[in-house]
Amino acid sequence: MEKINLENYLNLEEVVNEFQGIFSIEMLLNYIEDKKIAGIKHQEEWYISRFELPKLKELFITETLQWVNQQTIILKSSSLNNEGRVLDIGGGGEGVIGQLIGRNVVSIDISEPEFKEARENGDNKSLKIIMDARELKFLDETFDSATAFFSLLYIPLKDLSQVFREVYRVLKKDGIFTIWDLMIPENFTNKKNFYGIKLEIELDGKTIETGYAVKWNKERTMNSYLKLAKKTKFAISNTKKDRNIFKIQIKKT
Fold first, then answer.
1. Rounded distance between C-alpha atoms, residue 150 and residue 193, angstroms
2. Is the whole-model pTM more than 0.90?
3. Partners of residue 191 on adjacent β-strands
């Protein structure tokens, strides 16, 4: 029997983890069976070469992801309360708020690689802490304001009320929580498993092109966020819809 060198191969479970659960093992087996990607079977277990991973990424984009039309967001530091301490929820990745405001930002994220990416993208001044937004390790009334830039959509809907309560707790009186997010309709296609948007973000003197996508299993609307805000005793300060995205500002009373 020919000996197989598995140094550059991943088993299917490792591939699932590599793509953070985007693909299931069943999906990967179907791709192999349909010859969309190459796989090898060794001792009753399937493996995929690391060189096939770019093909998988392309399959994700073309077959499982529903993109909506690209939109542009213009952000100015003057539009946010940046004089005090700012809590940024899910501030890894592009590190948009950290880039915009800088040293006044305390950015939290559950992923260290996301923070590494933020530094590479230019967020070198914000304080970065690995932390879960559902259980903030800060004292009451620590922050003057809070932000969540397309990060709440990655938190399960059932946990959002806890996040709102925690943000309310750590905000000072009259503190503003500013949220940007994507409106997600019900999924009637049964063909696309993910829903996302590509954005062009214009910061003060800089343009960032990026995208955000999540599993398409629940509807998300601006009104659902506003209901959570009111339930948490936030007062609604400002709301704005722009096609597929929205921005809301809510105040701790």
1. 19
2. no
3. none
